[in-house]
């Protein structure tokens, strides 16, 4: 049975380096036998603001309902996005706020500080671009965006292992360097699809 992979492109532009990485990963995973779906957040219609927190139900738009169905379907989630201001792009954060809801991604236990991780059984990869050198983002800035996505969102919801792949610095990178990064995404996709 082929592996089910969902790729979520969190960069709003479909002509970005992130888009090229996502498509290279998807193409290689398909060629390796995986069943692949791709969500491009920039093409989806939804309000990214969770207006009332968890106090009131905010009905999900059709695109978010379909996204939750895709997340449920997937065995492996691949998140492709840039680091902006040290963290996730607003559109991606809004998507997570609206879809990773109680009852879908997690469930608090009554009278307890513990919770159930409702998305357990899935793995994830993060393909993340940045203008900072990856070593600087890791050792000086302490990877706030990576830690948020990996630990406080995905692992909190039961998704593990989560592997992080950083691509940077993008600013002033050469065409040859970008081509190497796209080839690396292709290699990662081939590896994931063959599992």
Describe this structure in words.
This protein is α/β, with parallel strands linked by helices and 195 residues long. The protein has a single domain, classed as Rossmann fold. It is built from 6 helices and 7 strands. It has helices at 17-31, 62-73, 90-99, 134-139, 144-155, 175-193, and strands spanning 4-9, 35-40, 76-82, 106-108, 115-117, 123-129, 162-167. The strands form 2 sheets. A 5-stranded parallel sheet has the order 2-1-3-6-7, sandwiched between helices. Helix 1 (17-31) packs parallel to helix 6 (175-193). The protein starts with a strand and ends with a helix. The relative contact order is 0.20. The mean pLDDT is 97. This is Flavodoxin family protein.
Count helical runs: 6
Helix content: 25-40%
Structural class from helices and strands? alpha/beta
CATH class: Alpha Beta
| CATH fold type | Rossmann fold
| Spatial strand arrangement across the major sheet | 2-1-3-6-7
Flag low-confidence runs.
Answer: none
How much of the residues is beta strand, in percent?
A: 15-25%
Fourth-level CATH superfamily? Flavodoxin domain
Write the element-wise H/E pattern from the N-terminal end onward. Answer: EHEHEHEEEHHEH
Distance between the termini: 10 Å
Residue-averaged pLDDT:
97
């Amino acid at each position: 049975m082929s592996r089910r992979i969902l790729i979520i492109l969190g960069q709003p532009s479909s002509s970005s380096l992130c888009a090229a990485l996502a498509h290279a990963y998807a193409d290689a995973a398909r060629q390796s036998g995986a069943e692949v779906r791709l969500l491009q957040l920039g093409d989806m219609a939804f309000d990214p603001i969770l207006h009332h927190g968890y106090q009131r139900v905010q009905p999900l738009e059709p695109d978010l309902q379909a996204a939750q169905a895709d997340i449920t379907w997937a065995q492996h989630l691949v998140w492709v996005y840039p680091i902006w201001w040290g963290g996730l792009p607003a559109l991606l954060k809004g998507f997570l706020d609206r879809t990773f809801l109680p009852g879908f991604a997690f469930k608090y236990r009554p009278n307890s500080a513990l919770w159930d991780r409702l998305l357990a059984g899935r793995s994830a990869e993060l393909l993340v671009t940045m203008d900072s050198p990856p070593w600087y983002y890791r050792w000086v800035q302490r990877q706030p965006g990576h830690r948020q996505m990996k630990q406080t969102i995905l692992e909190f919801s039961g998704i593990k292992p989560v592997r992080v792949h950083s691509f940077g610095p993008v600013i002033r990178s050469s065409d040859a360097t970008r081509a190497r990064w796209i080839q690396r995404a292709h290699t990662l996709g081939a590896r994931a699809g063959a599992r």
